[in-house]
Amino acid sequence: MKKALITGVTGQDGSYLAEFLLEKGYEVHGVIRRSSSYNQERLEDIMSADEADALVNNQNFHLHYGDVTDALNTTRLISEIQPNEIYNLAAQSHVRVSFDMPGYTLDVDAKGTLNILEAVRILGLTEKTRVYQASTSELYGKVQEVPQKETTPFYPRSPYGVAKIYGFWITKNYRESYNMFAVNGILFNHESERRGETFVTRKISLAAARIAQGKQEKLSLGNLDSLRDWGYAKDYVECMWLILQHDEPEDFVIATGEMHTVREFVELSFKHTGIEIEWTGNGVEEKGINKATGEVIVEVDPKFFRPAEVDQLLGDPTKARALLGWNPTNTSFDELVKIMVKSDMKKVEDENVIKRMFD
């Protein structure tokens, strides 16, 4: 039985990856940070009810307290677990927040990656343990060519992107210096019903559900013209695994090859709640109007603009498709939005039921 260690296991990608690997017959170990509030919601499909509030797990799934910024803790865990595969998904991954917390973002996204690689090296596991580093399309930032592929020059536009560049290059450096199987998956935007509520796509799908059910009046957003390559996170974790099963350690772009605006995401989200949006105005004066009622339900707020904007990101998944046999469009853009909105419609309905029980 192969052993896998996942950092960031409580996140969107980590929870999907844990489920995927368990289905593949792995023994899965996840690293979670100690928190005074419950932070294991995304793992509840794996854990039984009596396990959900403690580190007591099923036979093949184990949780460990830790933090990639703690080199000693990271080294100890890797030494004890002796994993065949490490998936480093731990990160401060909110681009806008990285402008407010650049130092913390550097510690987690850059030094955290180094801590894992150095632990594998000093423990003598370079022949046994394969390392996957979760890289990001934010490396490309101010894009130098369209679409972006593995050979496209980087030009990050945020502290998050800059920190991730270190993670990318230190992974490649350890691969070339110590003959490690250490690889980067350059993931373009990938979303799901498990996406955090502060990320723009989930913010949109949840607001659409709340507005449709009369629980919210407006949705405030930043740049509606931003173009992104959006895929389904559940599909992307399969590609992470495929990269580590490849014969040679290589870096891969993980993307759909399609690009859509934030405005399109808004339109589709409301469409799946039965609301048709009409747009009026331009720039900061642009507003989304409910066609049936004439009410303004979407507006632009400059406070959500980034200090340095990334206008467009479009990945080229040709290499992953050709060498790994991965299907980048297994879930279409429309299907992705529909999945997210359907989940959030149920979430809001459940909240309403609970509220009525206590009213």
From TrEMBL:
The answer to whether keyword Lyase applies is: yes
Alphabetized UniProt keyword annotations: Lyase
**EC number(s) reported in the record:** 4.2.1.47
Note the superkingdom of the native organism.
Bacteria
How would you classify this enzyme at the top EC level?
lyase
Name the UniProt record assigns to this protein: GDP-mannose 4,6-dehydratase
